[in-house]
Amino acid sequence: MIMDVLSRWNQYYWLNERLEASFRFLEMLKPDAPDGRHEIDDDNVFCMVQSYETRPRDGQRFEAHRQYADIQMILDGEEAILWAPVDALKVVQPYEPDIEFYGLTDAPTELVLTPGVFCVLFPQDAHAPCVQHGNVSNARKAVVKVRIA
User: Fold this and answer.
1) Are the C-beta atoms of 147 and 68 separated by less than 8 Å?
2) Alpha-carbon distance 73 to 79, whole Å?
3) Torsion angle of the four alpha carbons 128, 133, 137, 142, in this order, in degrees rounded to the nearest 10
4) Topology, domain 2-147
């Protein structure tokens, strides 16, 4: 898992063409971009823009993906994403096309995303997105799906 500000994305030397295309797209994405899917490179790289109200931590569960890494970045509002390593969790819903669900741990790491802050979540990174940090927030977020498998 990586968390940083968008202005520093190009300082990561592990970037490949798909990740670079993802960050270049995020640099150009306007906060008022319409909700829905935005094409970058067919099913290899695409972005989902979402608007929602953040939810309480209770009742949430972790998810993880095998085929895609997620780059998640808030466009407006704020949210917490709960994080834990996959190998420390118990599966509660077996793998279906690119998603598996896990039970929430008692003490997950809380990542707080605000506009301009991104996190990259790899297959080993279980995450519970859209969680309220403090108070409920109306959030707009871009989730770039980057095929890695």
Assistant:
1) yes
2) 10
3) -40
4) Jelly Rolls (2.60.120)
Across-strand partners of 72? 119, 143
Residue 140: enclosing H or E segment and its boundaries?
Answer: strand 138-147
pTM confidence score: 0.93
Going edge to edge, which strands form the sheet with 79-85? 91-96, 99-102, 62-64, 125-131, 79-85, 109-113
| Domain positions in the chain | 2-147
119-135 pLDDT, tens digit each: 999 999 999 999 999 89
For residue range 96-120, what is the model confidence (pLDDT) as tens digits? 888 999 998 888 999 999 999 999 9
Q: How many angstroms separate the most distant Cα atoms in the chain?
A: 38
CA nearest neighbour of 132 among 83, 91, 79: 79
